[in-house]
């Protein structure tokens, strides 16, 4: 008779980027260059019904952000998002879904439901800080 057990091994991996796929409910809760973005047609990096920024974790700069464009977003996402930590080659290291992680709300308390941030003309997120809580726990 043979018995087996399952073991979990903890490994450390370098992560460089955060890729978000935010299913935005109300685009009008955002402003681009000081103009209300009623239909989500002004916000850069929109893909279908999602807002999909890739953020450099070290700098808080959004990749491919159009120079000179500013934005204030307060998007209700709730559990309509997927968030990926990527290595330097942009391979997925960790994926979580559901609630909005705290890292996506440097502009205020998002309570797990909102993406709240101000993005400067250089693509840098105001008050950016890295908080990987949620990524190190078991995904739901």
Describe the SSE topology.
Blueprint: E1 17-23, E2 30-32, E3 35-36, E4 46-47, E5 50-51, E6 54-56, E7 71-76, E8 81-86, E9 92-98, E10 114-119
Can you tell me about this structure?
Helix content is 0%, strand content 31%. It is mainly beta and 140 residues long. The protein has one domain (17-119). Strands 1, 4, 5, 6, 8 and 9 form a 6-stranded antiparallel beta sheet that branches. A hairpin with a 2-residue loop joins strand 4 (46-47) and strand 5 (50-51). The model has no long low-confidence stretch (mean pLDDT 94).
Characterize the biggest β-sheet.
6 strands, antiparallel
In N-to-C order, the SSE pattern is: EEEEEEEEEE
E-strand count: 10
β-sheet strand percentage: 25-35%
Q: From the helix content, strand content and strand pairing, which structural class follows?
A: mainly beta
For the record, the count of structural domains works out to 1
Number of helices: 0
Give me the Rg, rounded: 17 Å
Question: What is the general shape?
Answer: elongated
Q: Roughly what is the average pLDDT, rounded to an integer?
A: 94
Low-confidence stretches: none
- Alpha-carbon distance between the two ends: 35 Å
The residue fraction in helices comes out at: under 10%
